[in-house]
Specification:
The protein is built from 13 helices and 40 strands. It folds into four domains: about 110 residues, Rieske Iron-sulfur Protein (3-layer Sandwich), CATH 2.102.10; about 180 residues, FAD/NAD(P)-binding domain (3-Layer(bba) Sandwich), CATH 3.50.50; about 110 residues, FAD/NAD(P)-binding domain (3-Layer(bba) Sandwich), CATH 3.50.50; about 70 residues, 2-Layer Sandwich (Enolase-like, domain 1), CATH 3.30.390. The protein has about 575 residues and is of the alpha+beta class. It is globular and about 80 Å long. The strands form eleven sheets. A six-stranded antiparallel β-sheet has the order 4-13-12-7-6-5.
Length: about 575
């Protein structure tokens, strides 16, 4: 018999219990339409699978079945990558039960066998995404897709896996989604859900609504000219073209009726009449609103800041143009921020020279601490990056309208053909000043654990918000990172649908430089000590950030999967004491 824990399954893509009820068949063999109530009106919809997750067992030629091991080969809590001949699966044994899912993280393809298994889920060793081992569903981010789930059977003490060849090759599954009912009936200037911003928070919000069966109109608007894309790649892989880094293809948005208005900027929000007013005068009425506008990069305040060849990296075009202009030329980067350092690392092999100007004495001092900062700085110096620390730019000089020199307050003059500015960012919330939505003194939108603002029906997510972080006793924090934006978007969507879900995720981020990654989990703001294990000079270390007696964050380099392990411990609500890591 086919052994499928918890859920009886006849197809490779397993639907969790709560979704399976939506798939009950009607007498004519089609899925029965379901009713979702919004504004008191009954709406009908059909759930649809994304093409890559359609039932693969209709075609017997697409199915492979293989014996992968003896039942005693795996202990409880063990994972093994197994080969089915035309692709691999991840076999897991937990609490005496076997499970089989895709073996690669759908985000960037990390081998999940090297990740962390804990209480029914596996966490990616690279960037911290989490997947339920029983369903394959994504439970924490980054990334949008879930894992395919395969059938397992035990026969004569042997473990067999049955899988679709297609799923073994794609190694990803898009969750079931509703479609919008008759868009033709809609008034163009009215939507049920309006999402301002098309980054990770906005996209995950829209997708979650559809996954949960929401079948009314969803409109996303963005100042960008592109569909949502993988923003971290702008500084990590600067010559990526927009179409190479889009998070979903155009067809996806058409299939699931998620409308995206590009190059559209909201100028004001009228919360009383529930209307968003765009810069061009267009007005759109909404029922529920998500504000996920992110950050605006800070500009330099010195003389010459407006001249040509001075860049903030905001779009793929910015990144592409910097790479083109920097090739064999002199580059000056202002600010040893994540963006500044990643850009410096990317350009070293292409530019004639790369100089970095920073106010602190070492890069990342506030974030990673002085010792880790020094080790990173040394790695950069070994790769020909010249640092000018504890100084700032006093003037940019031009020749024939183009940048020629960067003058520092220390008096030093640097030759420069291109200047990239990475001196931080401010929340893009200026348009909300008179709205009545609660904004703090730094411009961040204040939300509760359900991503709700002080205004009913108005939610906010991503880099522009402060929210209560469970990990730090519900202290209001701003966490401007990719993984967190995904989770904010999901929580906001669930609460638009009145699920009452609170955010409890552990922040997780990474930075990549010279082919090496630093991974980080937790929230280390205000740490008072750093306990380091390993060798900083060899760039093989783990750093535990402590406040009083408690570990509040961890960073590592070449030490996987330690950061994912710590993230799982913190996610379980357990405290790690300083003495435990010393």
């Amino acid at each position: 018999f086919w052994y499928v824990p918890a859920v009886e399954v006849k197809i490779e893509v397993v639907i969790p219990e709560k979704e399976r009820s939506k798939e009950e068949m009607s007498p004519n063999g089609k899925a029965s339409p379901l009713v979702y109530k919004v504004n008191g009106t009954a709406r009908h919809y059909h759930l649809e699978e994304h093409p890559i997750a359609s039932n693969p067992y209709h075609n017997p030629k697409d199915v492979v079945e293989a014996s992968v091991c003896h039942v005693k080969d795996l202990e409880n809590g063990q994972m093994r990558e197994v080969d089915l001949g035309c692709g691999k699966a991840l076999l897991i044994k937990e609490s005496g039960e076997f499970h089989a899912v895709g073996h690669k993280c759908p985000h960037y393809g990390a081998p999940l066998v090297k990740g962390v298994l804990s209480k029914g889920r596996v966490r990616c060793p690279w960037h911290g995404a989490c997947f339920n081992i029983g369903t394959g569903d994504i439970e924490d981010f980054p990334g949008l897709d879930s894992l395919p789930r395969f059938q397992v059977k035990i026969e004569k003490e042997k473990v067999y896996i049955r899988a679709s060849k297609q799923a073994l090759q794609t190694q990803r599954r898009t969750k079931m989604m509703a479609k919008c009912i008759s868009l033709s009936n809609y008034n163009l200037s009215s939507t049920n859900v309006l999402i301002i911003g098309a980054g990770a928070a906005g996209l995950v919000c829209a997708e979650t609504l559809r996954q949960e069966g929401f079948s009314d109109r969803i409109v996303m608007c963005t100042m960008d000219r592109h569909l949502p894309y993988d923003r971290p790649k702008l500084s990590k892989s600067m010559d990526s073209h927009p179409e190479q880094i889009t998070l979903r293809p155009k067809e996806f948005f058409c299939t699931y009726d998620i409308e995206v208005l590009t190059e559209m900027q909201v100028a004001a929000v009228d919360i009383k009449s529930k209307i968003a007013v765009f810069k061009d005068g267009f007005k759109m009425e909404y029922n529920k609103l998500l504000i996920a506008t992110g950050n605006t990069p800070k500009a330099l305040s010195c003389k010459g800041k407006e001249m040509e060849n001075v860049f903030n990296i905001r779009t793929p075009e910015d990144a592409n143009r910097v790479v083109k202009l920097a090739t064999s030329k002199n580059v000056v980067i202002v600010g040893a921020s994540f963006l500044g350092m990643e850009v410096a690392a990317y350009l070293t092999e292409r530019a004639h020279s790369v100089s970095l100007v920073e106010l602190e004495e070492v890069p990342f001092k506030k974030f990673f601490g002085e010792r880790v900062g020094h080790a990173v700085m040394k790695m950069f110096e070994n790769n020909r990056v010249k640092f000018y620390m504890q100084t700032e730019v006093s003037e940019l000089r031009e020749q024939e309208g183009k940048l020629k020199e960067v003058v520092l307050k220390s008096g030093k003059v640097l030759r420069a053909d291109v200047c990239v500015v990475g001196v931080g960012a401010v929340p893009a919330t200026g348009f909300l000043k008179q709205s009545g939505i609660n904004i703090d003194s730094k411009g961040f939108i204040v939300v509760n654990k359900m991503m709700q603002t002080n205004i009913p029906g108005v939610f906010a997510a991503g880099d522009a918000v402060t929210f209560p972080l469970a990990l730090r006793n519900n202290k209001k924090v701003n966490v401007p990172h990719w993984q967190m934006a995904h989770m904010h978007g999901r929580i906001a969507a669930l609460n638009m649908l009145a699920h009452g879900t609170e955010i409890s995720t552990v922040p997780y981020l990474w930075t990549a430089m010279f082919g090496k990654s630093i991974r980080y989990a937790g929230h280390g703001e205000g740490f008072d000590d750093v306990v380091i294990q390993g060798d900083l000079d060899e760039l093989k270390f783990v750093a535990f950030y402590t406040k009083s007696d408690e570990v509040v964050a961890v960073a590592s380099m070449n030490y996987d999967p330690i950061v994912s392990k710590v993230a799982e411990v913190l996610a379980a609500g357990r405290t790690i004491r300083k003495r435990d890591v010393e």
